[in-house]
Amino acid sequence: MSPGVDRPAPVLIEVAATVEVPFEVARARLAEHHEAIVAGALGAAPKGADSPLAGRVGPFGPAGPGAQPVLAEVLGSQDLGDRVVLGLRWRPARAPGVLPSLEAEVVLASLGVASSELRLCGAYHPPGGSLGRSLDRLGLHRVGERTLRAVVRAMARGIQAMDPPVAQQPLVPCP
Questions:
Q1: What single-letter DSSP state applies at residue 7?
Q2: Strands across the sheet with 116-124, in order?
Q3: What is the DSSP-derived secondary structure letter of residue 90?
Q4: Is residue 153 part of a domain?
Q5: Fewer CB atoms < 10 Å away: N or C end of the chain?
Q6: Does residue 118 contact residue 108 with C-beta atoms inside 8 Å?
Q7: Is the pLDDT of residue 2 over 60?
Q8: Residue 44 is part of which domain span?
């Protein structure tokens, strides 16, 4: 980009999924396993120290048609009492001028006694300058929404599928 030329405003995007476990349980699982939950949602291999998660994203999940490789970073989590906020960033592993990068926050909050909500609020710059922005407005943004919805739903399933904490496991009487 040339000096003095403004970069267009990012496209804001928000998607959510219900997590069918109480907030306190989901909070504990996300706090302890946030990187594994994101890795599972991206179909990512375990990462080494100081290296990004190498995963895939697409409108039909990481193994679905059209999934593209990304390098993702989990930027830590903050427990704010009534919600947990997780930073997430990814960039295309190849074709950076063709696919957008994402900067987002994933927020876990209570939906009542038995469930929680996982909401991703993020921003991306459509690649390809003004032509890319026009294509995004004409319909490509739907691919982005479906992709992020697939990621958030996979994260919700990952939280739900974890074993319950020891305190919540049923007691088994001794013989």
A1: P
A2: 11-19, 116-124, 102-110, 83-92, 68-79, 53-57
A3: E
A4: yes
A5: C
A6: yes
A7: no
A8: 11-162
